[in-house]
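How a chain folds remains the central question behind the approach discussed here. The record that follows shows the chain in one-letter code together with its fold in token form:
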Amino acid sequence: MPRHSLGTGNVRPVPPLDLEEVKFWLHIMEEHALFIKTGLPFDKPDLIEEAAAFEREFKALYVRADKLTSEKKFAELIAESMESLKEFIRYKQLLLGLSLTNKLGSALPPLFFDHVIREAEYFMAILEKLHACKKLAVVKALEADFWLRIMAEHTKFIGNRIDPSERSLLEVVTGYQAEFDNLSMQARDYVSFLAHKPMDLPAFDRFLQDSRVATVRLRDFKQAIHEMIVTNRMLSTIPAVMADHVRREADHFLLVLSMMEKGVIKVEKDAVVFKNKYPSVFDTLAEEKIGDKLVDPAEFLGSGREPKAKEVINNKEIINKEEIINNEEVIDNIELDYTPGSEREQLPISEDTKAKWNVTDSVEETVSLEGDTNTEVAEEVAVKAKVVAAEKVVLPSKPVTEPKSKQGKYKWGGNWPRQLGKLKK
């Protein structure tokens, strides 16, 4: 997700920036429900009523947010918003599934439902950090990737709802579609570049400036669209509230860009992207030393090296059991049969194999082997570790069964409807 956390604290005042961010997204979710409600076919009354219920729910949450007086009330609002948003995401996913299989008959295309799901998930990531009392921070490349894709899709939604007779307007929209498709794809490239090689990149800073200039022009065009709709000077099926909705999202993107540039919100290094995606690699490398020097995890990114339990250092290796125990291994053409027979069952290892590798009783001991190269040492130690670990594998006598998932609160969860939007005293 685009947002990441920095720092923790049990008690802190509610930063105005956090509250405004929550209010912005609560209003966006309310309008999502409105668009869905008005876009569903008349022969789906249950789905329409659910959309109306979500609209009332998020409107009520927004009213509460606008009248917050204490940190305790803010924490309660965050918790309840998370619960409502979780159900709203499930509802949107249901509609997406129906739309993808042509069972919905909605005026809204599948891309619209995917679009609003991604925005809701972005909001959920923000709420989760606030719920854990963690400060919000951003990764520039991820923010650009998220928002430029949103802007690109806005141009498509606008173009699809302008009347075909509005040829000059459609030509302008086509230009914006091509421009933001290119910017969105370029942002995705930078996410990959900076994940593999975190660094300060002037080319990326220039790209952000290009994105800002393009978004300002698109924001102004959205504002013009809204004014023409309100004054009946344009032929389209775009509701005025939807035109204003996409204009406000463009303004919010510009605000995020400005806050990143001026340091109003904390900007994390793009290495965090890779760390969150591949935590095991970073956990392995973060505390590693070569001689007296700590290894920089960034040096390993994009190097082509496969992650290992530990690097071989001075012909020694400490074995990590969790990364070498597998369900089935073949060592020296001896297949280890993992068929469970008793509660504790040791696997057959030949005496020749044990003698060859000088197997000891402890997996975590420090081993020193002679070899021509570090690679050969690593391979020998890894095979030895697998043999030792295989001898110590404990197998469950019965397969573990997954717990049954809880039913949701809505119709597809077997317990709908529920009362939404009720203000608490």
Observations:
- The longest helix spans residues 71-100.
